[in-house]
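Hi W., the PBG complex you wanted:
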Amino acid sequence: MFTPLRRRPRRLRASATLRRLVRETSVTPDDLILPLFVSETIAERAAVGSMPGVFQLTVAEAAEEAAGAWGDGVRAVLLFGIPRHKDEQASGAYDDGGIVQQAVRAIRAAVPGMLIITDVCLCEYMSHGHCGVTHLEGGCLEVLNDASLKLLAKTALSHAAAGADIVAPSDMMDGRVAAIREALDGGGFEKTAIMSYAAKFASAFYGPFRDAAQSAPQAGDRKGYQMDPGNALEALREVALDVEEAADFVMVKPGLAYLDVLWRVKERFEMPTAVYHVSGEYAMVKAAAANGWLDERATVLETMTAFKRAGADLIITYAARDVARWVAEDAAE
Ligand code: PBG
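Structure:
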C-alpha cells in the first residue's frame, strides 16, 4: 500500500529564495586573499603561461592591481617576490630595498586599508631554488634547518619593517614560527601576525606556481621538508607545533585534495584557518573552461564553498577578484 511521504527534503529546494534561506555555508569577499607576483626583472606585466589571468607585475602594477582588487571587494593580498639577483644566501629576501619590501610600501601608499600578507620563503631568492640554505653532504644535497631559520627570521623582520600586517612562512623548516616570532618581538613588531603554512604537502599541484615565481629547485625536490601526501596525523602534529610556537593563523595547502586535513585541523585546533587553492588547482579549471568542458564560474564557486564547508575561514586563491565579483552579483540577485 502507498504510504504518503511526510519527510520531503525537496520542499526546501523549491525556489532560489528558499535555497538561499536554508544555505549553511556561503562565501563572502571577506574570506578571500589574492596572491600577487611582483618582479624586479620586468619592465611591464608578463603573463604566466600556465595560469591564465595571472601576471608577474612591476611594483607600480602591483599597487594598481591591489587597488583594482580593493574595488572588487578583496581586502587582503599575499605577496611573492621575484628578485633580479639570486644567490646562495637568499640575500634579496631580507634586503630592506628588496622587491617584496618595495611592493609592501607601494601597496600601503596606494590602498591604505589593504591587509598586506607577505610570503616568507627563500626559494625565489636562492640560486638553487630550495627553500633553505643548502649543503652538499657526500654528494647529497642537504637543506639545513637551523641555518635557514636565521635567514627566514631576518626576512620576516624586514617585511614587517616595510609595513606587512601578516607574515606567512611557507618554507616548512622546523621551528620557524618560533624563530620568526622572536625576531618580530625583538624588533618591536609584536603586532605583526604570523600565518603559518602549517600543513604544507609536497604537491604536484605547485607546478604552475614555480613558473610564475621562477622558484623550481634546480636539483632534487622538496620532499625532505614538505609533507608526504599520505600523512594526515602528521599534519595535526605539524599544526600543533605551530600553534605552540604562537602562529596566529594556520594553513592547509593544497586545498581540494586535502579537505579531510582541513576539516580535522579546524575541528582539533579551532584556530583561524586558511586554505590555499594552489596554482595547479586554478590552472586545471582554467584549462577545462577554455575547452568548454567546465563552467568556470560554477566550478570555482563550488570549490570555494567546499573550502568553507570543510572549515576554512580564509581562502587564498588566484581567482579572488572573480570570486568577489561573482558573490557580490549573486547576493544582489
Ligand atoms: C614557496 C611557495 C610555493 C607555493 C607557495 N609558496 C611553492 C613551493 O613550495 O614549491 C605554492 C603555491 C601555489 O602552487 O599556488 N615555497
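The chain has a mean pLDDT of 96.

W.
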